[in-house]
Amino acid sequence: MDTLRGLLARERRDDRLALREDGTGREYDSHRLLTNAWKVSNLLHQCGVRAGHTVGLVGRTPEAVLAFLGAVSLGAVVRFDPSDERDLRAVVAPTDETDRFDLPPGSTPVAYGAEPDDPGTRYFERDVWSQNPTLAPSAVAPDDPVLATADGSFTHSDLLAGAERAVERTDMDAGTTVAVRAPLALAGTVAAGLVAPLMADATVVFPDADTVADVAVATDSAPESTVCDPTSLLGDPS
Predict the structure, then answer these.
(1) Which pairs count as long-range contacts for 130-133, CB under 8 Å and 24+ apart, including other chains?
(2) Where does residue 106 fall: left (phi above 0), alpha (psi -120 to 50 degrees), or beta otherwise?
(3) Per-residue pLDDT reduced to its tens digit, 14-39
(4) 215-217 and 226-228: which strand pairing?
(5) Residue 153, CB half-sphere, CA atoms under 13 Å: how many?
(6) pTM across the whole model
(7) Which one, of 228, 78, 95, lies nearest residue 167 by Cα?
(8) Could you tell me which residues come within 8 angstroms of residue 152 by beta carbon, excluding any fewer than 6 positions away?
């Protein structure tokens, strides 16, 4: 696997638990997660997202994970919790937060949760469901930028290397539960909390107050016996 697009390979779909959101009880096995990520790639493609474009993502939810996977499969650059929307081609956010973005002409808000009133806003739940379950075509290279943070830009190779370090440091493997406690705005959190579990066939967990997983991705103390500090995984950004 040399780009994050490899995480969505058809042969990687099975019935293992890939994602759970403890606050709501929602769960996705690998088959459902990847199939829906393919559909999101098609929705974002319809919204004009192409390689090199930037997609803003808001929230720590399954929708954010699906949008992350769909966007990076197109060669787009993802920015979690964006504070500057001037270069966003699309933003995926809870419905009650889409209004705070002053998007440039030609950009598309995609809302999840309650159905939006604005006819110019795409509705995630409805519009993803209607897409074909195939991965939108795109040419993606290992050195292409894939994540923009306040610290700089990171490539597919950067995130995959960081994910491999997280797997090695925590002995992450199939069935390991990984609680994502650090902000997704940190590149190391994306590498250790999203990419590494998906790569290792582990389970991404968005925890609630009662969650105790096998591994925590955290910058502070956590109830898990194994903690991976996301700030120590990646080198200097581009």
Answers:
(1) 131/38, 131/39, 131/40, 131/42, 131/43, 132/39, 132/42, 133/35, 133/38, 133/39
(2) left
(3) 999 999 999 999 999 999 999 999 99
(4) parallel
(5) 11
(6) 0.96
(7) 228
(8) 236, 237, 238
Beta bridge partners of 222: none
Q: Counting Cβ atoms within 10 Å, is residue 27 exposed (0-12), middle (13-18) or buried (19+)?
A: middle
Contact 133, 216 (CB under 8 A): no
CA-based nearest residue to 89, from 44, 152, 151: 44
Q: Encode pLDDT of 190-216 as tens digits.
A: 999 999 999 999 999 999 999 999 999
DSSP string, the chain: --SGGGGG-GGG--SSEEEEETTTTEEEEHHHHHHHHHHHHHHHHHTT--TT-EEEE-SSSHHHHHHHHHHHHTT-EEEES-S--TTEEEEEEEGGGGGG--PPTT-EEEEESSPPS-TTSEEHHHHHHTS-SSPPP----TTSEEEEETTEEEEHHHHHHHHHHHHHHHT--TT-EEEE-S-TTSHHHIIIIIIHHHHTT-EEEE--TT---SEEE-SS--SSSEEE-GGGS-----
Hunting for tokens 């780009």 — which residue is that?
Answer: 3
Minimal CA–CA distance to 89: which of 48, 39, 120, 140?
48
- With tokens 């830009």, the residue in question is 153
